[in-house]
Design brief:
- The chain is globular and about 55 Å long.
- The chain has a 7-stranded mixed sheet, with helices on both faces. Strands 1-10 form a two-stranded parallel ribbon.
- The model is unreliable at about 1-10 (pLDDT under 50).
- Helix content is about 35%, strand content about 15%.
- It is an alpha/beta fold.
- Bound molecules: pyridoxal-5'-phosphate.
- The site of pyridoxal-5'-phosphate has 15 residues, from helix 3.
Length: about 350
């Protein structure tokens, strides 16, 4: 097992009181003020399932995504359709192809269901090696191919033309799960509209990241209605009402994405520049996390950071000397720099 599990739901060691948390790629700003107000106002109505409110959220979402209503289904977080995808579309005769490193939950669920998991190392520039992933999918029976775009932990991104190449060259029977959890942090357009054209692409989105709603739980699966029916066949799970209310307020705020994207990029770039000046390189990121090469054991480094009040993310076996760091507020990143300088023995 893992000393520090990758799954969002996994129990983590309790951080020290007042510690700066840069370990789970959460949004340090939380739900927007309007979303918080809407969630509070919704509490009195929480004795009901509020299916109509879910319909309103879906309609607001499809209007922005420009896809038909029957191509979208809401879930309490994107983890749920992700887990269901592994259960449905992988198994002993249908393997999984993923990048290495990437968000590991899908691979863990697939492996638990008897699927062979092929891990394809990222390219030297940190991006997914989509050509090698397609080759891997042709080399063995492959039910599902996972692309996390931007990738967790690196924040690296594959441009639309490379993703189009992947869709054109993968085995016909292999489905592609495109996880766009962090896409709102980048300038790149979503591929979500493609689900109206093909039945082998499932796109996941979440309100947990840029919208700051990780603890409220709302996510979206977009796909051909047949794929959505398969996902739904594993059982219904009604949606949390405060999450629906907050999601609607978030979708109706046209400033939220550009504002938070800009703020995140500014803080991320300043932090990466600070690290670079001290000789620590990072994989190019377009998300709210990045991977830094600490040039020594990453787990020990993260432990020393935690001892200095800053909890950072973990290492991946393929990169034992690199650690993932979530982009926090300017204040949190000042604390990060202080702790990093101390632990690495470089000027603050
Ligand atoms: N996908 C990726 C790439 C993630 O990093 C996470 C959470 O860390 C998830 C999906 C699941 O998030 P949630 O279930 O909160 O939507």
């Amino acid at each position: 097992g893992h000393a520090q599990p990758a799954t969002a739901a996994a129990p983590a060691p309790a951080p020290a009181e007042g510690a700066v948390l840069l370990n789970f790629n959460e949004c340090p700003y939380g739900p927007s003020p309007a979303a918080q107000q809407a969630a509070r106002d919704s509490i009195a109505g929480c004795g009901r399932y509020r299916f109509a409110l879910a319909g309103q959220v879906r309609d607001a979402f499809i209007e922005q995504a420009r896809i038909p209503a029957d191509h979208v289904r809401l879930y309490p977080g994107s983890s749920e359709p992700l887990n269901r995808a592994a259960v449905l579309w992988t198994g002993p005769l249908a393997g999984l192809v993923v990048a290495d490193p990437t968000f590991e939950t899908l691979g863990e669920v697939a492996a638990a269901h008897g699927a062979h998991v092929q891990k394809v190392p990222l390219r030297d520039d940190g991006a997914h090696d989509l050509r090698a992933m397609v080759a891997a999918a042709h080399a063995r029976p492959t039910g599902l191919l996972y692309v996390c775009n931007p990738n967790n932990p690196t924040g690296s991104i594959s441009p639309p033309d490379e993703l189009a190449w992947l869709l054109a060259h993968k085995p016909a029977s292999t489905r592609v799960l495109l996880d766009e959890a962090y896409l709102q942090y980048s300038e790149q357009p979503s591929l979500i509209a493609q689900v109206a054209q093909r039945d082998d692409l499932i796109v996941l989105r979440t309100f947990s990241k840029l919208y700051g709603m990780a603890g409220l739980r709302l996510g979206v699966a977009a796909a051909h209605p047949d794929r959505l029916r398969e996902l739904a066949s594993l059982g219904d799970n009604p949606l949390p009402v405060p999450a629906l209310a907050a999601a609607l307020a978030s979708l109706r705020d046209p400033q939220l994405i550009p504002q938070r994207r800009l703020q995140n990029a500014k803080v991320r770039q300043a932090t990466i520049a600070w690290l670079g000046k001290r000789g620590f390189s990072c994989v190019r990121s377009e998300a709210n996390c990045f991977v830094v090469d600490v040039r020594r054991d990453g787990s020990a480094f993260a432990k020393a950071m935690a001892d200095n009040g800053v909890v950072i993310g973990r290492s991946w076996p393929i990169w034992p000397q690199r650690v993932r760091v979530t982009v926090g507020t300017e204040e949190e990143m000042a604390a990060f720099r202080n702790a990093f300088a101390k632990v690495a023995g470089v000027p603050a």
